[in-house]
Amino acid sequence: MRKITILLVSIMLTNVVNAQWSNKQLLHTEHKHLLYTHGDILVGAQNGGNLGLSFVFNRKYSVEIGYSSTTNKVMPNFPDVLKSANKSEVDMIVSPDEMLENYHIMMGRHFNLNSKGTFRLIIQGGPGMSVINVKAPVRKSTGYTVIPTVATNDISIMMNSKIEFPVNRVIGFSAGPSLLMNHDRKYFSMGLGIIYGIISKN
């Protein structure tokens, strides 16, 4: 949960700085290429956030580098809390069964869905590196309950399609699904985010 909070704060700070730079330096220029950051909230089997930087050549071909952090559990089920009198201390500890961090680079294509370029579809995909932390068996240590994790690294493939809605030259919104695949796991999520930077040609 701490990593997700740090990620969301980083998204906000990066977007604010980037928006200020865009407003001061580039507001009155027609742009052949686009450069912007994006921050997304991810929901699905895994919940968390995603932060990325995109460069779009000629407003058509894009390269994105990004980082995401997700977990499959952030709080106990409400019925479990009501029945806590019948549960052990270990059962009631709020701890995710799995936490996933992924570093990726994707290449894609932008398709304008209207003449003004204020409604566009992005399809992209590429390789990445995942760090997967899985909960290990609980053990007791000097009177305290210890929940260890086992971390593994794995090569991943990430695919993403989304719709972007630029509101003006420097700010907009995005929404769409993502699929992350490792050698033995698949993670599907839906994202809703904000984009900041040079996001429109004029």
What can you see in these coordinates?
With 202 residues, the protein is mainly β. It starts with a helix and ends with a strand. It contains 2 helices and 10 strands. The longest helix has 25 residues, at 2-26. The chain has an 8-stranded antiparallel barrel. The protein has a two-stranded antiparallel sheet with strand order 6-7.
Short synopsis of the structure:
This protein is mainly beta and 202 residues long. It has helices spanning 2-26, 78-82, and strands spanning 34-44, 47-57, 61-71, 98-112, 120-135, 139-141, 144-146, 149-166, 171-181, 186-198. The protein contains two helices and ten strands, in the order H-E-E-E-H-E-E-E-E-E-E-E.
Can you tell me the number of structural domains? 1
CATH architecture: Beta Barrel
| Count of beta strands | 10
Q: Using the alpha-carbon principal axes, give the shape.
A: elongated
Low-confidence runs of at least 5 consecutive residues: 74-78, 84-94
Overall pLDDT level: 78
Distance between the termini: 39 Å
What is the spatial order of strands in the main beta sheet? 1-2-3-4-5-8-9-10
Tally of helical segments = 2
Helix content: 10-25%
For the CA atoms, what is the radius of gyration? 20 Å
The share of residues in extended strands comes to: over 45%
- CATH-defined topology: Porin
Biggest β-sheet description: 8 strands, antiparallel, barrel
Task: Provide the CATH top-level class.
Answer: Mainly Beta
Instruction: Encode the helix/strand succession as letters.
Output: HEEEHEEEEEEE
Instruction: Classify the secondary structure makeup into a structural class.
Output: mainly beta
